[in-house]
Amino acid sequence: MNTDLYFLIPGKLSTLTGGYAYDRQIIAGLNAAGLTVHHVELSALFPAPDSNALSDAAQRVAAIPDGALVLADGLAWGTMGAIAEHEHGRLRMIVLCHHPLAFEAGLSSAQQNDLFQSEKVALDHAMAVVVTSAATARLLNNAYHVPMDKLVVALPGTTPHTFAPCQGDPPVLLTVATLTQRKAHDVLIDALSRITYLPWRARFAGGAAFDPAWAARLQKMTDTVGLGERITFVGSVADLTAEYSAADLFVLPSRFEGYGMVFAEALSFGLPVVAARAGAVPDVVPDSAGVLVPPDNATALALALHELLTDRPRFERLRAGAQAAASQLPDWQDAVQTLINLFRTLSARPCK
Questions:
Q1: Is 39 in a helix, a strand, or coil?
Q2: Which phi-psi region, left, alpha or beta, contains residue 146 (left: φ > 0; alpha: ψ -120 to 50)?
């Protein structure tokens, strides 16, 4: 097996999102297993690159030796369809798709179509496509017609943690997500504005850099509905242990998730989850550990929060369910071994 891997990643590997955390864990695991991972850093402008970013990416890909194993983060590769087509047959190309770019929230029809077409070309010209959930595999098969035998599921791992005591007075509602439209903080703020008669405080952990205008809009919305004293925008947090440990309930009504590592993290701390039934979330959060509501439905979200904040026996049942689910979460070694097995298989095949 070829033990050299070229991993194409846009922006800084230290970026505090679930996708970058996945990439960091995979690199560490592959290096520990004896592979040599060559980190190829692409422009941080992806997935909205300009001509210079695309030209630089093309040069970096062209510099990779013939026949090499290449793992490309879909955050960049999904917009590099022309490069994928040009390099087809020279490299053993594998795409890591955290979630399809065309399914990002807030896109215009034209943007969505452009991303879809580019992604489809990029996926069509890969030898394999790694996804982080069975739900994403099904989506790529149905929407992009990626053959199932070309799709490989490598579930994110989770580190075990001490369970949170869940004794907040008032209860602490924790949300961990970048301040982007797909994460639906706006729906959550709307829902929280409907249960101001209950005691609670909310903490939104996540950076604003990906969409500063949207982040500012969320802050303004919070102030407009009179929740400025009850919702705290924490910003990016490198180590979220203290946040999870101090929380009583994890809430994130994302409009779409390719996996949703933060949901698994919440379960690892024994936190009940309230979320939207979107993307891979139902695969991660069992009914015994949380309440899933329709996406973009603030009324249903408010009702779910009301029930868990007022019905302690039900809350405790879900808390017990979260603790039970925590013991069933995959670890990172499983994901690393899945990739090693894939690399071994592709190394024995001609580039195509």
A1: strand
A2: beta
> Among 212, 292, 196, which Cα is nearest to 252's?
292
- Phi, psi angles (nearest 5°) of residue 272: -60, 150
Task: Give the Cα separation of 274 and 271 in Å (integer).
Answer: 10
C-alpha torsion 163→295→79→36, nearest 10: 20
1, pLDDT greater than 80: no
At what angle are helices 298-310 and 185-193 packed, to 10 degrees? Answer: 60
Handedness of CA 207, 212, 218, 222 (dihedral sign): positive
The predicted-structure confidence for 205-250, as pLDDT tens digits, reads as follows 999 998 999 999 999 999 999 999 999 999 999 999 999 999 999 9
Going from the C-alpha of 320 to that of each of 14, 168, 219, 247, 287, the distances in angstroms are 34, 17, 34, 15, 12
DSSP string spanning 261-328?
HHHHHHHHTT--EEEE--TTHHHHS-TTTEEEE-TT-HHHHHHHHHHHHH-HHHHHHHHHHHHHHHTT
Three-class secondary structure of residue 252 per DSSP: strand
Q: Which domains does the chain have, with CATH numbers?
A: 4-157+331-347 (3.40.50.2000), 172-326 (3.40.50.2000)
Question: Residues with Cβ < 8 Å from 325, sequence gap 6 or more?
Answer: 267, 285, 286, 288, 289
The DSSP secondary-structure symbol of 6 reads: E
Confirm if 304 and 276 have CB atoms less than 8 A apart: no
CB 49 within 8 A of CB 16: no
Which pLDDT belongs to residue 35?
96
Please state the three-class secondary structure of 105-120 as a single string. Answer: CCCCHHHHHHHHHHHH
The number of residues in the chain equals 352
Identity of residue 337: Q
Residue 105 has pLDDT above 90, yes or no: no
261-290 residue pLDDT tens: 999 999 999 999 999 999 999 999 999 999
